[in-house]
Amino acid sequence: GVEVVACPVTRTLQHFGFGAQFAVRRAAGKPLEDAIDTIETPVDELSVTLVPGGPLAHRVALTVTEPPANLMERFFFSAEVMDPRQPAMVAYVRTLHDNLVRVVREAGLRRLAMPTLCTGGVRLPPALVAVAAIRAVHEDFCQHPADALRVRVACFERGHAPAFEEVRDELIRHFFAPDKAERSLMPSAFPAQNESREGE
After folding, report:
1. Would you say residue 75 has pLDDT above 70?
2. Cα–Cα distance, 46 to 6 (Å, whole number)
3. Cα–Cα distances in angstroms (integers) from residue 181 to residues 99, 146, 185, in the given order
4. 112: helix, coil or strand?
5. What residues does 152 pair with on adjacent strands?
6. Alpha helix ranges (H) inside 30-177
7. Rounded to 10 degrees, what is the CA torsion of 68, 72, 75, 78?
8. Mean pLDDT of all residues belonging to the chain
9. Contact between 128 and 93 (Cβ < 8 Å)
10. Fewer CB near the last or first residue (10 Å), C or N of the chain?
11. Are 82 and 89 in contact, with CB atoms under 8 Å apart?
């Protein structure tokens, strides 16, 4: 079993009724919703808030996946095309997963289940999310090798699984050189962009 389940949310904690958020909130039920009702919103950007998980788990980690305001203004409310290869986008998804892992560890929890965050409404490539998620867990393990987190990734879409498996395997091959693994993985994370550039 798991002790904590990550639930993607916006800063308003609004229940949108679809996707991974809907699945987690439905499974956790009234204890989760009662806890959410007591939280003052909007919560902080990229924050993680632990609340009772009802019948689902001991805790649910309300994980803000809504992009920070500067990214929203730049890519979502302007004519500029959102390119997930932008350093700001990579930093955003990395920080999100780092925060999740840190909050779980600081709470004394060690068994985490999480969906493929940011692959739904935010529409980030699964491979980029996989790199961010697995790097966060890898870095945590390197800092706490005798007290490792156990993490399960629940792919909301079956097609996301190969990306996570590829990243996992590459980081295992280059366990002591994760930057090398990441450099080799990043080009394959954006096949559509790479193909379009090759045709220019």
Report:
1. no
2. 13
3. 22, 24, 6
4. strand
5. 113
6. 30-37, 69-71, 87-106, 126-143, 161-173
7. -150
8. 89
9. yes
10. C
11. yes
